[in-house]
Predict the 3D structure of the following.
Amino acid sequence: MSDLALILERCRQGDELAWEALVRQYQSRVYATALQYVRDADEALDLAQDIFVRVYTHLDTFEGHKTFLPWLLRLARNAAIDHLRRRKARPPRRDVQVEDNPPLPDTRPLPDAQWESKGRRQLVNDAMGQLTSTNREMILLKEIQGLNLKEIAEILGIPVGTVKSRSNRARLELARAILVLDPSAGMSTP
Amino acid sequence: MNDNQRERMVQGVLARTIGSPCGRARALISAQSDDPLEKVDTSLLSGHTAHCPSCRSFAAVMAWLPRPLVELAEVDPGEAFTNATLRAMLPWRQRVARRLRNLGEEWMALMRRPRFAWEAAYIGAAIIGLLFAAPISPLRDVPGEALRVAQANPVQALVEVSRRQLPATVVNWGDAAWAATGERAGTITRNWRDDLWDRLGRAWNAGTPLGPDTAELGASLRAGRGNRIRKAIDQIKKDFYGIGTELATASGRNNPHNQQDSSGERHGC
């Protein structure tokens, strides 16, 4: 039995330490996913918490033979859709400054290599903000989270062929958006 | 012809025939991220990108993209996030546990309210009304059917209704069980029953109540049979005694001689 399987089993039994370990192991991934859906750092924190609550309440429905990440991302997607629907139905009372592409939060120190990395990530993140929600979701699931075509097809409920063509289209749109933002992208950095 | 002239000529021909092939080139550039291209496609693509700076940039971006995309897979939400999430979970779990624990107490508290009986009666009446009186209710004919059954020959009608509503298998089992019981009870029950029917008939025709002397019938059976048969017979006897008394009373009220069958045969229930 793998470490993750053990942790999940302990979580099901109500082991609080196992739950904390699971949260720590997946919080960055869940937060990154939430961030791509809502495009707002504070809102993404709330959404990420909602996602973890869902994970906790649905742990019994997780079937061990399937991989955990696709299951987690499916829950995350459903939570994000609910969150966006609620936001649409009831706009926030506080004034929100419109910022299409918020800077990625990062509390780590930034030596040169990391500075470069942050620049790359920020550029791609900005370009992601230019995509349609369908294309952004496709890039998120396939290129960012690394799911395969079949897993994405199951999550989205569409045929594998459709996933492939949408993924292709999304990549093209993303590359175009990056070149608009920075025509030298891909040339100057290794 | 120098390079510039050659390139201008190619662009001119393309513009007058198929337009720009960049769309096809970029589709191939994107597709090769999923699957390797065929050899000929790879060759055609490199031929195009060698002369098309725009597609060359595009290819460079596509080759560069995976790394920053993978870097976006995880974004640190900050140390406070874990604690905030765990804190957010705690009240939720406590809420559920407390809710479950208090459910029984809340119900008992509800039961202790003085008005609860009135409210329950009111709700019950409303439910019964909805079930049996609402025009769209599938049970609306049930009271009428029950009344019809009660006004008809009650025992037979009830048996028939029950038989109609039971699956055939159950009815067959019931018949088989009844037959087996009849066999085991034997002639004693049949004789006793026939005798009782005679007495009932006579009592009906005479308009007099059936006397308690039928107890002697039961007494005559007690010696030879088991307890279960005896108890059953006693119960049937009591029932028949009650029915006989009712019939006699009714016939006395309604001048039984006018209702008497001319053939003198008994009137069954």
Chain B has three domains: 3-70, 93-140, 158-259. Residues 168-206 of chain B form the longest helix (39 residues). Chain B has a mean pLDDT of 73.
